[in-house]
Amino acid sequence: MRRLLEVCVEDVAGIDAAIVGGADRIELCAALAVGGLTPPASLIAAAAQAPVPVHLLTRPRDGNFVYTAAEAALVEADIRAAAEAGLAGVVIGASRVDHGLDVDMLAAWVAVARSGPRPLSLTLHRAFDLCPDPLAALETAVQLGFDRILTSGCTPKAVDGRATLAALVAAAGDRLTILAGSGIDAVTLPPILETGVREVHASCRSPQGAADAREISFGFQAGPRLATDAEKVAGLRKLLDLQPSA
Questions:
Q1: 227: helix, coil or strand?
Q2: CA 130, CA 95: separation in Å to the nearest integer?
Q3: Of 138, 130, 125, 201, which Cα lies nearest the Cα of 166?
Q4: Is the pTM of this model over 0.90?
Q5: Measured in whole angstroms, how far is the alpha carbon of residue 53 from the centre of its chain?
Q6: Largest alpha-carbon pair distance within the chain?
Protein backbone atom coordinates (compact mmCIF):
# COMPACT_ATOMS: atom_id res chain seq x y z
CA MET A 1 0.00 0.00 0.00
CA ARG A 2 1.42 3.38 -1.04
CA ARG A 3 2.10 5.73 1.85
CA LEU A 4 0.13 8.97 1.55
CA LEU A 5 1.24 12.56 2.12
CA GLU A 6 -1.26 15.14 3.36
CA VAL A 7 -0.14 18.77 3.29
CA CYS A 8 -1.90 21.46 5.30
CA VAL A 9 -2.18 24.80 3.49
CA GLU A 10 -3.69 28.19 4.25
CA ASP A 11 -3.77 30.07 0.93
CA VAL A 12 -4.11 29.60 -2.84
CA ALA A 13 -0.34 29.56 -3.34
CA GLY A 14 -0.15 26.75 -0.80
CA ILE A 15 -2.74 24.74 -2.72
CA ASP A 16 -0.65 25.08 -5.89
CA ALA A 17 2.62 24.25 -4.11
CA ALA A 18 1.14 21.14 -2.50
CA ILE A 19 -0.11 19.88 -5.86
CA VAL A 20 3.14 20.63 -7.71
CA GLY A 21 5.15 18.91 -4.96
CA GLY A 22 3.10 15.73 -5.19
CA ALA A 23 0.78 15.83 -2.17
CA ASP A 24 -1.84 13.09 -2.17
CA ARG A 25 -4.30 15.14 -0.13
CA ILE A 26 -4.71 18.69 1.16
CA GLU A 27 -5.97 19.83 4.53
CA LEU A 28 -7.40 23.29 3.98
CA CYS A 29 -6.95 25.72 6.89
CA ALA A 30 -6.43 29.30 7.88
CA ALA A 31 -4.09 30.61 10.60
CA LEU A 32 -1.65 27.72 10.80
CA ALA A 33 0.34 29.79 13.31
CA VAL A 34 -2.28 28.87 15.92
CA GLY A 35 -2.75 25.30 14.76
CA GLY A 36 -5.25 26.05 12.02
CA LEU A 37 -8.75 27.54 11.86
CA THR A 38 -11.66 27.25 9.42
CA PRO A 39 -10.72 29.11 6.21
CA PRO A 40 -12.98 31.57 4.35
CA ALA A 41 -15.58 30.51 1.82
CA SER A 42 -13.55 32.05 -1.03
CA LEU A 43 -10.59 29.77 -0.28
CA ILE A 44 -12.89 26.75 0.03
CA ALA A 45 -14.27 27.49 -3.44
CA ALA A 46 -10.76 27.79 -4.88
CA ALA A 47 -9.64 24.53 -3.23
CA ALA A 48 -12.64 22.68 -4.64
CA GLN A 49 -10.97 22.96 -8.07
CA ALA A 50 -7.88 21.04 -6.93
CA PRO A 51 -7.11 17.71 -8.66
CA VAL A 52 -6.46 15.98 -5.31
CA PRO A 53 -8.84 15.36 -2.38
CA VAL A 54 -9.27 18.36 -0.08
CA HIS A 55 -10.33 18.04 3.54
CA LEU A 56 -11.62 21.12 5.35
CA LEU A 57 -10.47 21.87 8.88
CA THR A 58 -13.51 23.03 10.85
CA ARG A 59 -12.23 24.83 13.94
CA PRO A 60 -14.12 28.04 14.77
CA ARG A 61 -11.50 29.66 17.02
CA ASP A 62 -8.09 29.13 18.57
CA GLY A 63 -7.56 27.86 22.11
CA ASN A 64 -9.11 24.72 23.53
CA PHE A 65 -11.57 22.36 21.87
CA VAL A 66 -14.38 22.74 24.42
CA TYR A 67 -17.17 24.34 22.43
CA THR A 68 -20.42 26.05 23.28
CA ALA A 69 -23.65 25.15 21.49
CA ALA A 70 -23.25 28.28 19.33
CA GLU A 71 -19.72 27.25 18.33
CA ALA A 72 -20.85 23.69 17.63
CA ALA A 73 -23.46 25.13 15.26
CA LEU A 74 -20.69 26.95 13.38
CA VAL A 75 -18.83 23.68 12.88
CA GLU A 76 -22.00 22.01 11.65
CA ALA A 77 -22.46 24.82 9.13
CA ASP A 78 -18.84 24.43 7.99
CA ILE A 79 -19.36 20.70 7.46
CA ARG A 80 -22.37 21.44 5.28
CA ALA A 81 -20.35 24.06 3.39
CA ALA A 82 -17.61 21.51 2.68
CA ALA A 83 -20.15 19.09 1.28
CA GLU A 84 -21.85 21.76 -0.84
CA ALA A 85 -18.49 22.87 -2.24
CA GLY A 86 -17.68 19.31 -3.28
CA LEU A 87 -14.74 18.78 -0.94
CA ALA A 88 -13.77 15.23 -0.05
CA GLY A 89 -13.79 15.44 3.73
CA VAL A 90 -13.66 17.38 6.96
CA VAL A 91 -11.31 17.47 9.93
CA ILE A 92 -13.11 17.87 13.27
CA GLY A 93 -12.58 17.44 16.99
CA ALA A 94 -14.20 18.41 20.29
CA SER A 95 -13.23 17.89 23.92
CA ARG A 96 -14.86 17.82 27.32
CA VAL A 97 -13.32 19.90 30.09
CA ASP A 98 -11.36 16.82 31.24
CA HIS A 99 -9.80 16.58 27.73
CA GLY A 100 -11.74 13.44 26.86
CA LEU A 101 -13.59 13.42 23.56
CA ASP A 102 -17.01 15.09 23.54
CA VAL A 103 -18.82 12.07 22.15
CA ASP A 104 -22.26 13.66 21.84
CA MET A 105 -20.99 16.69 19.94
CA LEU A 106 -18.82 14.58 17.66
CA ALA A 107 -21.67 12.15 16.96
CA ALA A 108 -23.90 15.04 15.89
CA TRP A 109 -21.23 16.33 13.49
CA VAL A 110 -20.55 12.86 12.10
CA ALA A 111 -24.27 12.49 11.36
CA VAL A 112 -24.21 15.73 9.37
CA ALA A 113 -21.08 14.70 7.45
CA ARG A 114 -22.60 11.34 6.52
CA SER A 115 -26.08 12.63 5.67
CA GLY A 116 -25.58 13.96 2.15
CA PRO A 117 -25.56 12.14 -1.18
CA ARG A 118 -21.74 12.09 -1.00
CA PRO A 119 -20.70 11.26 2.58
CA LEU A 120 -17.58 13.13 3.66
CA SER A 121 -14.38 11.43 4.76
CA LEU A 122 -13.82 12.09 8.47
CA THR A 123 -10.58 12.90 10.27
CA LEU A 124 -10.45 13.35 14.04
CA HIS A 125 -7.93 16.13 14.64
CA ARG A 126 -5.36 16.63 17.38
CA ALA A 127 -7.88 17.23 20.13
CA PHE A 128 -7.21 13.49 20.30
CA ASP A 129 -3.66 14.20 21.53
CA LEU A 130 -5.02 15.71 24.75
CA CYS A 131 -7.05 12.62 25.66
CA PRO A 132 -5.91 11.00 28.92
CA ASP A 133 -6.29 7.48 27.46
CA PRO A 134 -5.44 7.45 23.74
CA LEU A 135 -6.23 3.78 23.20
CA ALA A 136 -9.69 4.23 24.70
CA ALA A 137 -10.15 7.37 22.60
CA LEU A 138 -9.21 5.37 19.50
CA GLU A 139 -12.03 2.91 20.26
CA THR A 140 -14.41 5.85 20.61
CA ALA A 141 -13.30 7.20 17.23
CA VAL A 142 -13.91 3.80 15.64
CA GLN A 143 -17.39 3.61 17.15
CA LEU A 144 -18.20 7.12 15.93
CA GLY A 145 -17.22 6.18 12.39
CA PHE A 146 -14.05 8.20 11.82
CA ASP A 147 -11.82 7.20 8.89
CA ARG A 148 -8.58 8.44 10.43
CA ILE A 149 -7.02 10.13 13.44
CA LEU A 150 -4.50 12.94 13.03
CA THR A 151 -2.10 12.53 15.94
CA SER A 152 1.43 13.23 17.08
CA GLY A 153 1.31 10.34 19.52
CA CYS A 154 0.09 12.62 22.33
CA THR A 155 3.33 14.64 22.40
CA PRO A 156 3.95 18.09 20.88
CA LYS A 157 6.05 16.56 18.07
CA ALA A 158 5.37 13.22 16.41
CA VAL A 159 8.99 12.08 16.53
CA ASP A 160 8.74 12.06 20.34
CA GLY A 161 5.45 10.14 20.32
CA ARG A 162 6.61 7.16 18.29
CA ALA A 163 5.87 4.57 20.96
CA THR A 164 2.27 5.75 21.22
CA LEU A 165 1.96 6.03 17.43
CA ALA A 166 3.09 2.41 17.08
CA ALA A 167 0.61 1.29 19.73
CA LEU A 168 -2.20 3.18 17.99
CA VAL A 169 -1.32 1.68 14.60
CA ALA A 170 -1.39 -1.81 16.10
CA ALA A 171 -4.67 -1.21 17.93
CA ALA A 172 -6.37 0.41 14.93
CA GLY A 173 -5.56 -2.37 12.48
CA ASP A 174 -7.70 -1.89 9.39
CA ARG A 175 -10.53 -0.19 11.27
CA LEU A 176 -9.18 3.32 10.73
CA THR A 177 -5.95 5.03 9.67
CA ILE A 178 -3.44 6.71 11.96
CA LEU A 179 -2.29 9.92 10.28
CA ALA A 180 0.96 11.06 11.91
CA GLY A 181 1.52 14.82 12.08
CA SER A 182 3.43 17.62 13.81
CA GLY A 183 7.04 18.42 13.12
CA ILE A 184 7.38 16.03 10.19
CA ASP A 185 10.22 16.84 7.81
CA ALA A 186 12.96 15.03 5.92
CA VAL A 187 14.87 14.33 9.16
CA THR A 188 12.00 13.09 11.34
CA LEU A 189 10.06 11.21 8.66
CA PRO A 190 12.17 8.00 8.52
CA PRO A 191 11.95 7.18 12.26
CA ILE A 192 8.26 8.07 12.30
CA LEU A 193 7.60 5.61 9.47
CA GLU A 194 9.11 2.87 11.64
CA THR A 195 5.92 3.04 13.72
CA GLY A 196 3.98 1.54 10.82
CA VAL A 197 1.95 4.65 9.92
CA ARG A 198 0.68 4.66 6.35
CA GLU A 199 -0.20 8.36 6.14
CA VAL A 200 1.71 11.49 7.23
CA HIS A 201 0.67 15.11 7.58
CA ALA A 202 3.04 18.07 7.21
CA SER A 203 2.99 21.80 6.52
CA CYS A 204 6.21 21.83 4.41
CA ARG A 205 6.60 25.58 4.91
CA SER A 206 9.62 27.85 4.47
CA PRO A 207 10.20 31.52 5.42
CA GLN A 208 9.46 33.98 2.63
CA GLY A 209 12.11 36.69 2.91
CA ALA A 210 12.85 38.92 5.87
CA ALA A 211 10.19 40.26 8.23
CA ASP A 212 9.14 43.86 7.71
CA ALA A 213 9.87 45.85 10.88
CA ARG A 214 7.09 48.38 10.21
CA GLU A 215 4.51 45.66 9.63
CA ILE A 216 5.64 43.98 12.85
CA SER A 217 5.25 47.28 14.75
CA PHE A 218 1.64 47.50 13.55
CA GLY A 219 0.97 43.90 14.55
CA PHE A 220 0.36 42.79 10.97
CA GLN A 221 2.94 40.03 11.25
CA ALA A 222 5.03 38.42 13.97
CA GLY A 223 8.03 37.46 11.87
CA PRO A 224 8.95 36.16 8.42
CA ARG A 225 5.92 34.83 6.58
CA LEU A 226 5.87 31.07 6.20
CA ALA A 227 4.52 29.56 2.99
CA THR A 228 4.09 26.06 1.58
CA ASP A 229 7.29 25.05 -0.19
CA ALA A 230 6.79 22.79 -3.23
CA GLU A 231 10.37 21.52 -2.95
CA LYS A 232 9.79 20.39 0.64
CA VAL A 233 6.59 18.66 -0.41
CA ALA A 234 8.46 16.91 -3.22
CA GLY A 235 11.24 15.91 -0.82
CA LEU A 236 8.82 14.20 1.54
CA ARG A 237 7.01 12.56 -1.38
CA LYS A 238 10.34 11.15 -2.61
CA LEU A 239 11.24 9.82 0.84
CA LEU A 240 7.85 8.16 1.13
CA ASP A 241 8.25 6.56 -2.30
CA LEU A 242 11.64 5.15 -1.30
CA GLN A 243 10.13 3.27 1.63
CA PRO A 244 8.88 -0.31 1.29
CA SER A 245 5.12 -0.52 0.81
CA ALA A 246 3.17 -0.38 4.07
A1: strand
A2: 9
A3: 138
A4: yes
A5: 13
A6: 52
